[in-house]
Amino acid sequence: MSLNVKKGDTVLIIAGKDKGKTGKVVSCDPANGRVVVEDCNMITKHTKPRGANQPGGRNKVAGPIDVSNVQIVCPDCHKATRVAHKIDGENKIRVCNKCGASLEAKKVEKKAKKSKADKAEKTEEAVAEEKAKKPAKKTAKKTAKKEETAPVAAEGETAPTENGEN
User: Fold this and answer.
1) CB pairs under 8 A, 24+ apart, for 13-21?
2) 52 to each of 28, 45, 46, 49, how far by Cα in Å?
3) What spatial distance separates the first Cα and last Cα of the chain, rounded to whole Å?
4) For residue range 102-114, what is the model confidence (pLDDT) as tens digits?
5) Structure confidence by residue, pLDDT tens digits, 110-157
6) Which residues pair with 47 in a beta bridge?
7) I need a labelling partner for 1 at 20 to 30 A (CA). Which of 23, 30, 148, 161 fits?
8) At residue 144, what are phi and psi to the nearest 5 degrees?
């Protein structure tokens, strides 16, 4: 059985004890024609304890609803609608029957991660500059520490050495 509802769609429940509620589709079961909508059709599941990490108890979970009892809410006109299909090039897309807007989820483009090839493209000059900077910083820190720990001698006196001799 083919469903007009997909995971992530916002739907309105049109029949049953939760009639009038809206929510996102958490999962679909096309073989049985059922969908699970978050925070709708809540049922109680009794679980046995399965060890120290999993205590037993009564848990409220969302139960499945027949797909005929839900309608998709259009993201543009915000109305519950039937689904129409339109052929766009080679793709068959779902559209709102009332306003004609696409019901397909808009894909968010992620920033492209730098590939190994991009990282390897550093110029030799940049690498040489980085190497030149690193030892200079380390030596500056070491000399600063030595100056802080070295005893200071008054005028006319010689400073004691590390092993205590003058």
Assistant:
1) 13/37, 13/40, 13/65, 13/69, 13/70, 14/69, 14/70, 14/71, 14/80, 15/68, 15/69, 16/41, 16/65, 16/69, 17/41, 18/65
2) 33, 19, 17, 8
3) 96
4) 888 765 444 455 5
5) 445 555 555 555 566 666 676 666 655 555 555 555 556 656 655 666
6) 57
7) 23
8) -65, -40
The type of residue at 27 is: S
Give the residue among 39, 45, 46 at the shortest CA–CA distance from 62.
Answer: 39
CB neighbour list of residue 74: distance below 8 Å, 6 or more residues apart: 80, 81, 96, 98, 99, 101, 103
Which residue has 């779902």 as its token pair?
Answer: 94
pLDDT of residue 41: 94
Contact by Cβ (8 Å): 10, 40 = no
The token pair at 70 is: 């839900």
Element (H, E) at 46: strand 42-47
| Pairwise CA distance, residues 150 & 87, whole Å | 82
- Tokens 């500059």, residue located: 129
